Amino acid sequence: CYILLNGEKPTQAQYDEFKTIVTRHTMIHEQITRLFHAFRRDSHPMAVMCGITGALAAFYHDSLDVNNPRHRDIAAFRLLSKMPTMAAMCYKYSIGQPFVYPRNDLSYAGNFLNMMFSTPCEKYEVNPILERAMDRILILHADHEQNASTSTVRTAGSSGANPFACIAAGIA
């Protein structure tokens, strides 16, 4: 993902800093978890994801100026960091299970799998084969050309809309 955002391969120090920043932003504001209850239990998880993603602008309004490079970076890190947490919460909400919060000791893919499939009542060990497969799936999907959702995000972004609304448009 670093390469997609920066256009070059990171040094080890840059990679470590990138990983730390992403890990630091995986939690979502606790009030966002309350928004899930505004949706019906049988709502499609992608519809819920669209609503929750758009709502991020209300919680992170300090980084909405798309003309400010620092704001763009902050918004990108927040989206990259919070998407797995929100996706897992959408899934957990749809099946009636409690939310599982991120763990900073796991990899990006491992953390996502843990939030998706662990429960508070039993320990979940992330299968390293599944973790490696999920990591590769995420890499393959990170840049898959100019599809409909990418076009939608770019169109919304060209109007100067906030990054969270643009991504929500792409999810829709």
From TrEMBL:
SUPFAM superfamilies, sorted: Citrate synthase
Keywords of the record: Acyltransferase, Transferase
Enzyme Commission (EC) number: 2.3.3.1
Pathway annotation from the record: Carbohydrate metabolism; tricarboxylic acid cycle; isocitrate from oxaloacetate: step 1/2
Membrane-traversing stretches: none
Record-linked InterPro entries: Citrate_synth-like_lrg_a-sub (IPR016142), Citrate_synthase (IPR002020), Citrate_synthase_sf (IPR036969)
Gene Ontology molecular function: citrate synthase activity
Name of this chain's protein: Citrate (Si)-synthase
Source organism per UniProt: Burkholderia cepacia (Pseudomonas cepacia)
Gene name for this UniProt entry: gltA
